[in-house]
């Protein structure tokens, strides 16, 4: 469309979306079904499309590694 060539749109990687939602889930008392459902949905993306090293390192730095591990466990059980 004419006039839209120079518009910048912020984009969030799936890894950063998971990390953000893990933090929100933790801060919300780990009670938000919506956040947890979103986390699981993003993590269902096929492995080659997610940077697990980045995700694991930042989850550790942000103090949400336990939640990421729980999400991974839930996905393996299903």
Quick structural gist:
The chain is mainly alpha-helical and 78 residues long. The chain is 63% helix and 0% strand. It has one domain (14-77).
Secondary-structure map:
Elements lengths: L13 H14 L5 H11 L8 H11 L2 H13 L1
Structural key phrases:
single chain
Characterization of this structure:
- By secondary structure, this protein is mainly α.
- The protein has one domain (14-77).
- Helices cover 63% and strands 0% of the residues.
- The chain has helices spanning 14-27, 33-43, 52-62, 65-77.
- α1 (14-27) packs parallel to α3 and α2 (33-43) crosses α4.
- The protein is globular, with a radius of gyration of 15 Å.
- The N and C termini lie far apart (44 Å).
Shape: globular
The number of helical runs is: 4
* Unreliable stretches covering 5 or more consecutive residues: none
Helix fraction by DSSP (H/I, runs of at least 4)? 55-70%
What are the secondary-structure elements, in order, as H or E? HHHH
Number of domain modules: 1
Beta-strand percentage? under 5%
Q: Major sheet, described briefly?
A: none
Radius of gyration: 15 Å
End-to-end Cα distance: 44 Å
- pLDDT average, as an integer? 91
Number of strands: 0
Class by alpha and beta content: mainly alpha
């Amino acid at each position: 469309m004419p006039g839209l060539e120079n518009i910048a749109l912020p984009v969030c990687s799936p890894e950063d979306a998971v990390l953000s939602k893990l933090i929100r889930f933790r801060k919300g008392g780990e009670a938000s079904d919506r956040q947890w459902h979103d986390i699981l949905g993003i993590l269902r993306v096929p492995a080659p499309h997610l940077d697990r090293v980045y995700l694991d390192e930042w989850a550790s730095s942000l103090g949400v590694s336990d939640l990421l591990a729980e999400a991974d466990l839930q996905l393996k059980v299903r």
